[in-house]
Amino acid sequence: MLQRRVSDVKTSLDFMKVVITTFPLLDKALTSDLSKNPEVVRALLCEAFTPQNFKRVFAKIEKKRYFSKKELIVDGDQIPHMPDDMSLDGQGAEHQKMGKMKLVIRDGKLYVNGREVELYLSQHQRDIGTVIRGDKLRGEIRRLKSKRALNACLMHALTMHQEFIPDAWKTVGHIYFWNTVFCGAFGRLYVGYLFFFDGKWRWSYELITHNWSERGPAACIADSPLAA
Prior knowledge:
With about 230 residues, the chain is of the alpha+beta class. It contains eight helices and 13 strands. It has helices spanning about 1-10, 10-20, 30-35, 40-45, 50-65, 125, 135-140, 150-160, and strands at about 70-75, 95, 100-105, 110, 115, 120, 130-135, 145-150, 175-185, 190-195, 200-205, 210, 220. The strands form four sheets. It has a four-stranded antiparallel β-sheet, covered by helices on one side. About 25% of the residues are buried.
């Protein structure tokens, strides 16, 4: 019976049906992960594992070869990508290096080096109908003692690996990375941001003399390590 089921596994949907009917004791989270990897069920079903030892065997196989790592290493010291008309050399521009950053997505949240990424809003942004100029917001974020803004290296890494961006971010507006500020034409300063549009995450830049509302949070992490 198991051999017949193995031959039927051709798509993720077929795979889900096999897992649910063959191993009813599996929890939903594991079943969801497995549904994206039909090759796993082929291998495991060929061995005719029982529901009782399935989790134990699967956990061992998962670590060795079946699933890609659920983490990403970003070099926060490198020079970030920028448009041709921008640089880090002008007055007021800066790029604060952040070292190696290990990204992990877990339970719908993004962690950097074991610290959850928070979307910070100034009190001026949270109050109904109020805004704050970007240059003033930049100074406020610099003075924070418990949080540290992330830089553009992370912004660009996330656009290349969008599976690490929490779904909850899709509806919050523009997400800014204040630890990098670029200098453009005529000495104007810009900060980069992520935004979700037409089913995809994209990046752009905002002139920091513009006003920020509740739709423009800053991506930050706690300034001291916490257990992830």
